[in-house]
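Researcher: We plan to redesign the surface later, but first we want a full-length starting point. Tokens attached.
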């Protein structure tokens, strides 16, 4: 999520575009989840498609390509500017850390964060308040948020938070859930943001039925049952542009 936040910041600042091309080379391919590590390079991808693969498939190679494009140091600066003091991206996936590392890096590996800080990023995207200095949104911010929310909405790992919500979700209008699942070795009238982590799991099977996946799914179901017992409505949220309603002209009756 921190990478997505920095991508949004660099796009809105004109330092990156979703349409620019990034070339995958063999040296960048790593193992683990995703598909890019299995394909034959060189392959040219748009930056937007690289982010999509990072989100919807948790593609490790795409994640590293995005980190290379944005810059690890810039991502860190964005996290600090956003007030995320407990969120740190130490290194790329399956790539040894370079340079001096803090003492806790061996414990956390790729990086560390908290559920509260991840929720704050999700809230920024859902409300489209991207400006790190709390300035007013730029005219193009809504489309940037809409693109990122579309990635989260199409995320294909449904074993955790969305696990027991699929019967409340519908496919006619697209999913009403935007989420990002990951793992390492509100009010009734509005959107609900849930960020939840598990720790020291006894069941460490890499399956969709491990205890952590089921626990997160039950947690989300309990929240939805309490705050939105009528179910989920994909049309109730402006996915493509969270700022669209705010920008619409108001009539006297409104």
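Model: Full-length starting sequence:
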């Amino acid at each position: 999520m921190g990478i997505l936040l920095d991508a949004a910041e660099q796009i809105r600042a004109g330092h990156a575009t979703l349409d620019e091309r990034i070339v995958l080379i063999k040296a960048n391919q790593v193992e683990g989840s995703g598909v890019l590590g299995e394909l034959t390079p060189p392959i040219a991808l748009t930056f937007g498609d690289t982010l999509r693969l990072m989100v919807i498939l948790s593609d490790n190679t795409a994640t590293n390509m995005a980190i290379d494009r944005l810059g690890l140091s810039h991502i860190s600066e964005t996290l600090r500017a956003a007030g995320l003091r407990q969120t740190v991206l130490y290194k790329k996936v399956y790539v040894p850390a370079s340079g001096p590392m803090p003492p806790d890096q061996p414990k956390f590996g790729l990086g560390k964060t908290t559920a509260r800080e991840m929720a704050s990023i999700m809230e920024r995207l859902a409300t489209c308040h991207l400006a790190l200095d709390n300035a007013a949104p730029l005219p193009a911010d809504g489309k940037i948020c809409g693109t990122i929310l579309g990635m989260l909405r199409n995320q294909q790992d449904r074993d955790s938070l969305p696990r027991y919500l699929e019967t409340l979700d519908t496919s006619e209008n697209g999913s009403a859930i935007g989420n990002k699942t990951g793992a390492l070795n509100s009010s009734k009238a509005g959107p609900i943001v849930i960020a939840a982590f598990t720790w020291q799991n006894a069941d460490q099977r890499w399956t969709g039925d491990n205890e952590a996946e089921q626990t997160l799914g039950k947690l989300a179901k309990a929240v939805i049952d309490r705050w939105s017992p009528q179910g989920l409505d994909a049309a109730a949220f402006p996915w493509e542009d969270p700022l669209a309603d705010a920008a619409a002209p108001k009539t006297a009756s409104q």
